[in-house]
Design a protein that fits this description.
The protein is an alpha+beta fold and 181 residues long. It has a single domain, classed as Thiol:disulfide interchange protein DsbD, N-terminal domain (Immunoglobulin-like, Sandwich), CATH 2.60.40. The strands form 2 sheets. Strands 3, 4, 6, 7, 9 and 10 form a 6-stranded antiparallel sheet that branches. Strands 1-2-8-5 form a 4-stranded antiparallel sheet.
Length: 181
């Protein structure tokens, strides 16, 4: 009987999570600092996670419980990606423990490096599979996939900054000084 109660409680919790996930929305988007790329270029990128009002998502170190975003990168051979950088987080506490994370939205920064030896007129395509969690009274898991596509800059053309890059960084919790390193 005790095992049946535990099983029913677990099924009920999963059903409740499905109901919440239908109503509560959290999304991701990927952004590049430039509109095009050149072979051998190091390109700043940003992953934006939007969090609904009253909810939070976890930092790189989630604290006593939770899960930081898990980001998987798939790109052509030779493309390299650095470590994700997180902006300063907030601290949350309840009767269970202390947690570190972000409300509203968070923008994570990284750099991808394109190989020097690539054919002309090749378009860059990188796919990011992201698993993240948002919490309030309960925690909901989310997963999605976003694609970054960049055309190759014509020979002799300078790279141009993408529109809205500075605003994205500021909205995501970064100051110009923090982004400079």
């Amino acid at each position: 009987m005790k095992h049946m109660f535990v099983l029913l409680a677990a099924v009920g919790a999963l059903m409740l999570q499905d109901v919440y996930a239908e109503v509560i929305k959290s999304s991701i988007s990927i952004h590049s600092a430039v509109k095009t790329f050149k072979p051998g270029a190091a390109i700043p990128i940003a992953l934006r996670i939007e969090v609904p009002e009253g909810w939070y998502t976890y930092a790189e170190d989630p604290g006593d419980a939770g899960m930081p975003p898990d980001i998987r990168f798939h790109a052509p051979e030779g493309v390299e990606i650095g470590e994700w950088k997180f902006p300063p987080h907030k601290t949350f506490a309840d009767s269970v423990g202390t947690y570190y994370g972000f409300t509203e939205e968070v923008v994570l920064l990284n750099v991808i490096t394109i190989p020097q030896e690539i054919p002309e007129n090749v378009q860059f395509k990188g796919v990011f599979r992201v698993f993240w969690m948002i919490c309030k009274d309960l925690c909901l898991p989310f997963h999605d996939r976003v694609t970054l596509m960049l055309p190759q800059a014509p020979e002799g053309e300078q790279l141009q900054e993408a529109e809205g890059w500075d605003e994205l960084l500021q909205a995501g919790g970064w100051s110009k000084e923090e982004n400079a390193d």
